[in-house]
Amino acid sequence: MVKFTSIIVATVAFFAATASAQISTAPLEVTARQLERRNVGPGSIVKRNDVSTAEQKIILDTHNKYRARHGAPPLTWNAQAAAFGNNWIQACQFKHSGGKYGENLAAGYKDFKTGIDAWYNEVSKYNYKNPGFSMTTGHFTQVVWKDTTSVGCAKKFCPGSNWTIYICNYDPPGNYEGEYEQNVLPAK
């Protein structure tokens, strides 16, 4: 009985040590340099992004449908921007990261599509005769910003607030003062 118990304890200890070693390292596709992290929450541990390939397609299709209406080229998926956003929202704080990307946040929506739709729907408040930033249209202008070429998104369910935070990071970022007229075009 002692030998059998010792083998079990040793096996459990081996797996526990292996698991803790895996938890303490970042996924291979993400490096600290790529993330350029800033105070990204408890322990700053990079966690795998739970956005599926199907969700990535929905994110790109939804963005690109709206961008096409405004003469903006289609976006591509940006894995580094997605990893940055994923790392940021692990703390379940609904606030902007202040990172190098343009950034849209949403919470309380059922999925990415409904969040992106809500961002785009700010179009009704945008004044093309007086182009510029507004707190009521900043999500919309980032979605259709012509010079942006890629997006990466992440999500996290936060049990304390009982909602999912959705984040999309855009590269290069939009919403630069003095550049709205050439980057936020009227719908065709």
UniProtKB/TrEMBL annotation:
InterPro entries: Allrgn_V5/Tpx1_CS, CAP_dom, CAP_sf, CRISP-related. Residues 1-21 form the signal peptide. GO terms for cellular component: extracellular region. It comes from the Eukaryota. Residues 54-178 form the SCP domain. This is SCP domain-containing protein. The keyword Signal applies. Keywords: Signal.
